[in-house]
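This is your field. Please look over both lines of this record.
***
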Amino acid sequence: MDKAALAGALGAPPVFGQSQFALTRGNAFEARVKADGGAELLRLAHRTLDPGAEPPQRPCVPDLTAQGPDGRTARTALALREAVQAGGWTLLDHPMLALEVAGSPAFLEPDAVVVHPDGSWTVVEIKSFPVLDGSADPAKVGAAARQAAVYVLALEEVAARLDPAPRVRHRMLLVCPKDFSNLPTASAVDIRRQRAATARQLTRLTRLQDIADALPEGVCFSPELPREELTAAVEAVPATYAPECLATCELAFHCRARSRAQGSVTALGRSVRAELGGLSTVEEVLAAAHGEAGDPDDPAVAALRRAAALRAEALELAGREAACR
């Protein structure tokens, strides 16, 4: 389902995303890193990950073009097998991998995969955020590590079908601009923790078929439907909005408007929702704070009434000070 088209049809199109300038800069940096048949990228991989191996002299960069994602996935698997058999350094530029997510195949496209002379595989992520004085933004590095962990899991499935199975390295190669220049620098990032967490999350996902079976009979999410009918179909599916959704989900603005209309406290953030216990709406929270509802022995209700009393005292004091002036 095209969630962006669905959000537009609902009248709440997504507005997040990278700027055109950032995309252009990122593409230009990636092209520089991969220039000359990936010579610079493989030099960085050799120096950072495998200094004991023979230096890359004439690296192989196989053609991975094929018809459709299934064809590209098969072509990538074949190129990986051939690279292991040939030995030496091989660079796979934008390979296509497949990973089962909730019972359905998801197609993934890492920036690159390097095959080492010993036959092992390394995921390469090329990012446009800078490394300043030897360090980068931890949040951005963490996001890149989580992204690479998914690619590692997909590569492990490919490796498991080969005999003998090549080793998929659990350190990714992160390539970023150095300081304020456009010169690439690389570092090895251990992603074993992110890989383990992602693997656990994948096993706990509800299968898509089970989700589809739980939908009301005849529900359809086609953007071609009239807005009223489409809105009713979307509202038939439970959703819990939180402000964090704005950065990741195309339907976030629709869900935010829906959450605000219902007075849901989740619109204030997950941390606020956790502090309020069984109070799920703003109306319930205000009633509890004013002593009109709620169990006084409930810690959340008691805290709200204490906060309301403190607010009233502060307003009274401010009013007296204003009158004295």
About this structure: DSSP finds twelve helices and seven strands in the chain. The chain has two domains: 34-204, 227-324.
